[in-house]
Amino acid sequence: MRLYMKVMIGIVLFFSVCFMGFIPVFASVDMEDDFLEKLEEWEEQGIDPNHTEVVLTINDYIENNIDSNVFASLHIDREQRDLGVIVLSFTEEISAEHKSHIEGLLDEHAEIEFRTVDYTEEELIKKQQEIDLLELENEGISVVHTGVDVIANKVEVGIDPYNDEEAAVIYEKYGDEMITVVEGKQATILNGDNRAETEVNDVEIVEESEEDKNWFLKIVTSISNWFSNLF
């Protein structure tokens, strides 16, 4: 179960980054149509862009053959190719025998990459839990988010407004080996009028999505189905 959580958290974080990256170009019809077309092509060809069966098989192998203190995380990197590359992170180099066996579990649509990182996901989570938000707030530092970034193998701390002096205070308290301080974004609280307007817009968006098969909803559905298959 611990390994399933590693897989789930890694992929959730990855897709969160992807979605945030897509937001600025959400209105781009060309990208929307292009991505939707790829999804439809994969569906017609019976290709799973999340490589569910392969990931589960790899998961079983790692769980039964590799020390849990060595396995760090799994995520799917879609920057290298549209169908993604399954990236396995370990805190030390695994044997050629293990790599060969894992590569033998791939199907024709999956690619894999092995990398060595400094920390396991559990170690990063423990580091995240060390960060005392109240203490920092009392020092005038507004932390708007913290999170484990398995791709960067760091704990991300977002402060608003960002400045080097406050970042230096955080690094002084918690070290800079496992932490990176970035500019955070405050959540917007809607007043009554804006909330009502947003609710109307939400309804309009849903209606449009049902007619046009909005690409964003299809991705969410795909991820939801992926997690259903995992558990």
Automatic annotation (TrEMBL):
Organism of origin: Ornithinibacillus caprae
Protein name: Uncharacterized protein
